[in-house]
Amino acid sequence: EIHIKEPIEKEVNPRLLPGELLLCEASTVYKYMQEDGANRGTYGKLVCTNFKISFLDDDSASDDNEPEFKNKIVGENDITLQCVDQIYGVYDEKKKLLTGQLRKYPERLIIYCKDLRVFNFCLRYTKEEEVKRIVSGIVHHSQTPKLLKRLFLFSYASAAPNNTDGRNQTVMFDRLEDWRDELERTKGNVKYKAVTTNEGYRVSEKLPLYFVVPICISEESILKYEGRGIPIWCWSCHNGAALLKMSAFPKEQDDSTSQMQKAFLDGIYKTISKPPYELLKMDDLSSSLPSLQDIQTAYTRFKQLFLIDNSTDFWATDVKWFSLLESTNWLEIIRRVLKKAIEVAECLERQHTNVLLIEESATDLCCVISTLVQVMMDSYSRTKSGFQSLIQKEWVIGGHGFLDRCNHLHKSEKEEAPVFLLLLNCVWQLVQQYPPAFEFTETYLTVLSDSLYVPIFSTFFFNSQHQRDTSMSGESLKTQSGPFRFLTVWDWSVQFDPKAQAFLNNPFYAEKPKPDKSQRKTARFKHQRQLSLPLTQAKPSTKRGFFREETDHLIKNLLGKRIGKFINSSDEPPNSLREFYDSWHSKPVDYHGLLLPRIDGPEIKVWAQRYLRWIPEAQLHGGGTIATAAKILDLMEEVQSLQVKMDEEHSQAVSGDVHSVTMLRNSARLSSLFPFALLQRQSVKPALPTSTWKDLEDEDDLVRRDDEFVDLSGDM
């Protein structure tokens, strides 16, 4: 049965950004909806521009019923060309990957996106000429290799008025003063200095213009091997111990070169390692952490679990959800990375030892570990502006190859690896374990991950500061009013209005406590254990129901089933590290002090909001953390209104954040994956030829279902 919404009669044209050009379009395209088993959908126009693929129906023309959390740049039915992952054509019910020139054109087009949306377009009712134009246009502009200057980033920067506040309280680290201020903030200026040796990029195009090295390192040493073998400062701990990173020498060298490089390194180490006063621990991340290829393979498998075409596919994979999740190895990689960050934190905090992270380029896993260590040890990095400044310092100016790692130009899949996404997954583990410690929310992390694929910001579209600077200086890219400036992603007003930006701020953020002893006895949060893998084999339930064996369903994770892979005995942290870890977890949490993530078994979870937000079957209506948050916000608002009545003079003290998220009040209708899945939507379970459904009752009974493995009391 096909439910057809009548074709639109009025002309709907795409909303184009400055510099955006319409390349091709097709009318009478039918877009299937994923929300249920029936072939529901709507007719509209499919267009492709030099920025995005967009589906326009009659709803696109009206501003009625717009969600409160709306992106001003990328709409619900927009896919930026960089966000397209894979495109499949359906020929006689068979799916075929579309690349390059096409001999035959499909009757259906399926677009898988990097933000895990899936679009399903039927072209059966579209004119043949239009089908050829739109399919070949979409495939060509989103899948074929392109030149850097052909990115929409440059078209937009040339055409858009430059009236945005670029800095936005975020330290950009593109000036010498920024580095000196950071040294002063962390009290690192006693042993370290900011250098200008690379001005004009005379040392290396891979290094930033300005960076920080130990005071004893000479300019000649920095110049000798183009910055390789030089310890570069990341951050200083309160006790004086510092976190450093170093770009290693190539491993395959002739003997004489190797001897010279070894002698050079020995000299460098002697200048910064002076026992017993200055200790140094070196950690080669290329041998102690998974390779970039392993990370890419794991994520490729992992994302397939969430690129769901339809309801039938969802319930079919759900039967073996746990084993599929474990086989991807993605959660295990997250756990290993967090464990490495704990090791580094222990050296800095307890052993007062400098740590030198070593990697071939020092721009991938070095960025992940150094960022995580600072988030765990420096409460400033847990504020919004502090975290953004940290990403600028370690990733953008630090030289992470976003262009290659995200494969924005489709040049080489060999270089592709979701390194930055791995970091955000690790930070999310901390955010959901210790919500009051962070000024930002998981929604902030989710939209930050989406911004990787929005090419109007320069932040995630260059491999280095040098590449960005040389791209900006091109004569052809000057506007009438002078040289243009790229937008930075940190100006959130470009994507969201003030009401939507409120979702990025955590109303439960614990402000810096007063030095009062009673303040230290803060109640610890009890954490959900969901979307992870079994700690021990579950005891079979004595009654009929969901939670009996591996055919358990995804919904039970959302209801609190404890699952997770336990640390193997052979992989146990060393005794001193384990002692440090256990000792810290036995004390009350200081939300402005050191934070150590819980990494044992079920504590490592799937980032539900990012990965499940487009799957209606995975949503709990009126449940999840959002229900708890809504109740607390109601209480906060009530307390604040009472405060206003008590003291009219301070009525302005009512928090804008609380009032602006008014949609939370109707929490019974909200999805657990709010604000991406806004209001309750029905999902129809398909009739499958399997015994899977024997024990299923009506969907309305899901939340009321009693089970011995479910414990929701007090969860946040």
Give the structure's gist in a few sentences.
The chain is α+β, with helices and mostly antiparallel strands and 716 residues long.
Low confidence ranges: 517-530, 536-572, 653-660, 679-684, 686-716
The N- and C-terminal alpha carbons lie at a distance of 42 Å
Oligomer: single chain
Helical amount:
25-40%
State mean pLDDT (0 to 100 scale): 82
Spatial extent as radius of gyration:
27 Å
What count of helical segments does DSSP give?
23
Q: How many beta-strand runs?
A: 16
Structural class: alpha+beta
Strand order of the largest sheet: 4-3-2-1-8-7-5-6
Which band does the percent of strand residues land in? 5-15%
Which of globular, elongated, flat, extended, rod-shaped describes the shape?
A: globular
Q: Could you give a short account of the major beta sheet?
A: 8 strands, antiparallel
List key phrases describing it:
single chain; 716 residues; alpha+beta; PH-domain like; 4-stranded mixed β-sheet; globular; disordered C terminus; sarcoplasmic reticulum; PH-like_dom_sf; Myotubularin-related protein 12; MTMR12-like_C
What does this entry look like structurally?
With 716 residues, the chain is of the alpha+beta class. Among the domains are: 22-144, Pleckstrin-homology domain (PH domain)/Phosphotyrosine-binding domain (PTB) (PH-domain like, Roll); 176-311 and 322-503, no CATH class. It has 23 helices and 16 strands. It has helices at 58-61, 128-143, 152-159, 176-185, 219-224, 255-272, 285-288, 292-304, 311-318, 321-328, 330-349, 365-377, 384-396, 402-405, 419-433, 442-450, 465-472, 498-501, 554-558, 575-585, 608-612, 625-646, 656-660; strands at residues 22-32, 41-49, 52-56, 78-80, 84-91, 94-97, 108-113, 118-122, 192-195, 211-214, 232-236, 242-247, 280-284, 354-359, 478-479, 482-483. The strands form four sheets. Strands 4-3-2-1-8-7-5-6 form an eight-stranded antiparallel beta sheet. The chain starts with 21 loop residues before the first strand and ends in a 56-residue tail after the last helix. The relative contact order is 0.10.
